[in-house]
Task: structure prediction
Amino acid sequence: MSANIISGTEVAKQIREELKKEVAELKEKHGVTPGLATVLVGDDPASKVYVGQKEKSCSNLGIYSKRIDLPGDTSEEDLLALIDQLNNDPQIHGILVQLPLPKHIDEACVLYAIDPEKDVDGFHPVNVGKMVIGEKCFLPCTPHGVLELLTRSGVQTEGAEVVIVGRSNIVGKPVLNLMLQKRPAGNATVTLCHTRTKDLAFHTKRADILIVATGYPKTVTGDMVKEGVVVIDVGVNRIGQTPEGKSILVGDVDFDTVKEKAAAITPVPGGVGPMTIVMLMKNTVEAARNTIVE
Result:
């Protein structure tokens, strides 16, 4: 047995095509161009790459992109003043402050300053609270992407034993809440584990659907899963370089051993990664639509 590959690259492509049509409709029917502001403080190389990818994505979809690069010594006061300006800018429907921020800036204070109606990352406590109780809100991009992968791959979650390995505020906890809810990609029985869980394999072997986001390469191996499991690997770990100088990327799941038992599995790269940015675009388009008064 060898698993079907759940391609985030292909699913993200489908969603982009849907978003292009929606953006065109917003422009033609309502005169609204969705707008995303990205704020980068400092010159972290990885952050520059991520912001660049988001800019490119906006351009491809017809979304207005406003990129603001600030020096690393920018004060928290100045950053908060900028966010206030963006909150009041009618051209901007979504605001993304690229993390991590320099150590002298309180990340929570900055994220909480973003208008919840422009919080397209889904990190503001108002949106987190609405998510937990099942109200309409912006869902955090990576967990939302996980749900879309499952739904569009025809994976049934209702009544399934879902085991999540990882308890971060960015992935583990939101996925837990979403999988519990009465919604198409939900109605599951959910177990949340982490790297301090005793006998992790006991739990992972029960999973019909296994979602792994620990930040450690190959946390889950083939002997830790049952036949026919569906595996979503959220992790991306650089473990070295090829002779040509390219990074060698692996997930939090040992792909080679797990794929021999899984019914379906996401690869790394090309699995969850492409979904995160496209769900950010989806939230931005939704934020623009929310401003239309019918």
Q: What stands out?
A: The first strand starts at residue 4 and ends at 5. The chain has ten helices and eleven strands. The chain has a mean pLDDT of 95.
